[in-house]
Amino acid sequence: IQTALISFIFILGFFREIPALQLPAASSFMLLLSILTMIVGAVVFWLREWATPAVLATIILFNIFSNSNFLNRPHSAFGMDYETEPAAYKLEAITQTLKAENLEEDRNNTLQILENWRSKFPEDKKPKMIFVTTSGGGQRAALWTLRVLQEAELVSEGQLTKHTQLITGASGGIIGAAFFRELYLQSHFVENINLNDGKYLNQISSDNLNPIIFTLLVNDLLIRNQYFTYNDRRYLKDRGYSFESQLNLNTKRVLDKPLSAYIESEQQSLIPMLLITPLITNDGRKLYISPSPVSYMGISPSKSEGWDEKSQGVDFQRFFSENDPGGLRFISALRMGATFPFITPNIQLPSKPRMEVMDSGLSDNFGIQDALKFIHVFNDWIEENTSGVLLLTIRDSEKFAEIEEKQPLTIMQKLFTPLKNIYINWDNVQTLHNEVSFTRMNESVKFPIERIEFEYSTLQYLKERGLADQEGAFDPETQEILRASLNWRLTAREKKSIIDNINSPYNQRSLNRLKNYEFLK
């Protein structure tokens, strides 16, 4: 029986891309537990009193050899060239990408994009420049972001995306925004695309978790040995590949293109620029991924040589210039910014030592910092050519939340409370940091910066059903149960909760502001 089951797992591994053979996530987990139970039973039966020493010895040996090339093969960024000489990941190499001439060249290139953006509007009126920032939060954030952008585009009568210069954010939010941007681009060339069509909400919210968990069971926990070809290069399949394949399937492959495919569209300002900013785990810097170089995002203009100021980011195009950065699969870039621990693997890039990246939300879950940085770099041009800036922020959490009453804790709860507090308050810490940055920016520039905010909240749902009073007092456990979960699979109830949230009084006020907004002055 044991041999048959293990053989069955290997067979599933070879045919795992056939949807009919993919087990649900819960079934995959139960199957894994069954295998572990059988292994433990077999070891105890055959080795008896030697079972515990044998298991410990096996674990130690596996740990020793787990860093070998055979067992520890990197998870690649599909489309990049791993055969050429890897980029030297050293402080000197980072400094070289931030030379004054590089910053000036990249800034001038973006200035041309800004001029093309300005040419879309009448010369005798100054347009508002819009920055869209969207928070991370898995599929919940992807669906919520798309829902907000659809409604905002509708009430603004097509002015929102036309005025938008830059989209920033993290994780699922940036995936939802990228999907909307691609649909907007296609609407320039295809007549029958309705940006407000509900089918796109169904596409972005389709299940993406089962293939990941299933691949983890039948492939990643074993020895990865299957390859696929993209852009004439071979890459090992992993659960990251499964994530991309399923997302491609869900979205009808509209995002399956190289990063370089967006150069011309962004240059002509047909679509807004979009920055993907995964965190580099080696040193905490951001990796700025864009079709065109944006080295100015990594350091302040006054410290262009980088000797007195530690650079905050690495420009993807310049740093990996010899590794075909433009060939990077765009959907792989999106995954790099949405790499949640254990769900999708951290990507290792072709550098020495290996540069490893993970979720953008660890550094800025709301995209506010990057939007403000861009405004700072180009504030002179913005002051001269626009009537001000509008920051459209899309959050998948409440900005203002009532303070919970602390209950007496058990000993076990006290052990985990410090970690729980860090996790829960990470959102609050970043929000407060962004508030300080926004206030300082608003006070330092000579043009107005306004905000229109949207947020996904279950508080209104509780009020309507008498589970919270008008002051917002509620049972935190009840709200958490009703809130859509943070993963890549949403239930029908969760989807409805997210889609209907646009009708909350808070979000309706934001839509009304946008509807009556003066885009030209």
Question: Secondary structure elements and their pairing?
Answer:
Elements: H1 2-14, H2 25-47, H3 51-65, E1 87-88, H4 91-97, H5 100-118, E2 129-134, H6 138-155, H7 159-163, E3 164-169, H8 171-186, H9 199-204, H10 210-220, E4 227-230, E5 233-236, H11 239-250, H12 263-267, E6 273-274, E7 279-280, E8 286-288, E9 313-315, H13 316-319, H14 330-336, E10 347-349, E11 351-352, E12 355-358, H15 361-364, H16 368-377, H17 379-385, E13 389-395, H18 411-444, E14 449-455, H19 459-464, H20 476-482, H21 492-500, H22 505-515
Parallel strand pairs: 1-11, 2-3, 2-13, 3-6, 8-9, 13-14
Antiparallel strand pairs: 4-5, 7-12, 10-12
Report on the structure:
The protein has a domain of 64 residues. 48% of the residues lie in helices and 11% in strands. The strands form 5 sheets. The protein has a 5-stranded parallel β-sheet, sandwiched between helices. The radius of gyration is 24 Å and the shape is globular. The relative contact order is 0.15.
